[in-house]
Write a structure and sequence with these properties.
This protein is of the alpha/beta class and about 280 residues long. It is about 45% helix and about 15% strand. It is built from twelve helices and eleven strands. Helix 10 crosses helix 11.
Length: about 280
Amino acid sequence: MLELIYGKLFQHWRELENNSLAITKTKMKLEEYLQTLPSSILSGNDVQLPEHSFREIFEFANLSKDDVFYHLGCGDGKGLAIALEEFGVRKAIGIDINRKKIEQSNSLLQEKNLDQGHVICKDVTDAIFDDATVILFWFTDVLIIEKMMEKFEKLKHGCKIITIWGPLLGCLPDKVDFPYIINQVPFKPAKDLKEQLLAIFGTKCVDFVNAWEFAERYTKAIGSPEAGNDRFLTILQSLVIWINAKNLGVACTDEIPPAIKNYMGILRNFFNIEVEHLLK
């Protein structure tokens, strides 16, 4: 599930720039390169969405005064505050396993006198959120996602689960404004990954232009204005999108487009990262 890593990786790119991991000394496959990164990057710990992303997500979900909003992995609580202050939700609950983040969230809610905001220090897989009408869920750990699917499927009809980059496992999206995706209970099962991918991109096939456009949209949506090296991450993401499409048989051509070859060469020659082997 390499494609799940890059959203979290983008958030930590400042950290990578400050150490020797950004460019490898010897050639390695992309999976090997990812294994050299700090575990906090691969797990997605301490990742915080920028405020503009929260506003875009809430507008996309039509968040309103009638909603009970849950942010699973709430971080410092800024998303909860925006949901309450700017979108007037009935209640906003944040759940996070990191006690320090919970303390930060509590302080923010108290400072802003947001009495309808609450935070819980708990593993999301053990949490109860049966009254939710809208949930923001951005995790990359497949085991966590699989456990959460059992909980999500039991929620009341109409509950919206917002994810970023990809829909819930095995489900067709109900609404897409890439990179933001909504799956609504009861979920619509996807026949296969091919159907799921085409539903995300809203196209009959994926070419390099599609791949680059969606990778760039992701980068702009999730990144902060001062983020550096966003082009490197866009190249990685666009290659992953196109390679996935090619392997699933939904690329627009059987041949590798010149632009894809060029970017594979850039990764290989300037960053010592190999991706060609991912093609099946």
